[in-house]
Design goal:
The protein has three helices and five strands. By secondary structure, the chain is an alpha+beta fold.
Length: 173
């Protein structure tokens, strides 16, 4: 009989652990969540990279993918975050387009959330200057298994939003 041990996420100072893994089943579920998040990060990265290659976001634009693990009061959050930075015509401030999906593990269950939002310094395409949420889905109180499943569905939905750059007025190369 083998036993799996997964240490709690790193502690800072005397803070309590971010995740309490107590048994082999919990450890296996946590490992599967991390593996799933890694795969979804790569899937969303492939999609956003293709958008960046296809659309002309401008000479000084950039795409910054990140996988974040953060501690919040509600519990640990794992998030894949893909941010386009670009300048509007005649603008000296960076505008951003963000695709993200993540899971927060709370004492009452998991919360999954996916969103596409844009923060524009000047009007662009069909949007005025300001922050706009183009897509948001949030589901609370899920089991870890259900959270993984819903997160996969959410990332698949994000990867169908290839029209967002066009809605912002960006042309193709």
């Amino acid at each position: 009989m083998s036993e799996t041990h997964v240490p709690a996420l790193l502690r800072m100072g005397d803070d309590p652990p971010m995740l309490n893994v107590t048994g082999a089943d919990d450890a296996a579920s946590t490992a599967l969540l991390l593996t799933t998040m890694h795969r979804l990060h790569k899937q969303l990265n492939d999609f956003t990279t293709q958008l960046y290659i296809t659309y002309n976001f401008g000479d000084e634009s950039g795409l910054a993918p990140a996988f974040l693990i953060e501690k919040h009061a509600a519990g640990p959050e794992l998030r894949t975050h893909h941010r386009f930075g670009f300048f509007g015509e005649g603008d000296s401030d960076v505008s951003e387009l963000r695709f993200s999906a993540g899971v927060t593990i709370t004492s009452t269950g998991c919360v999954v959330e996916a969103m596409v939002d844009v923060d524009l310094e000047r009007p662009l395409g069909e949007f005025g200057a300001d922050a706009h949420t183009l897509y948001l889905e949030r589901i609370d109180q899920l089991s870890l298994t259900d959270a993984r499943s819903r997160l996969e569905e959410q990332v698949t939905a994000l990867c169908t939003m290839g029209d967002v750059p066009t809605r912002l007025g960006f042309g193709t190369h």
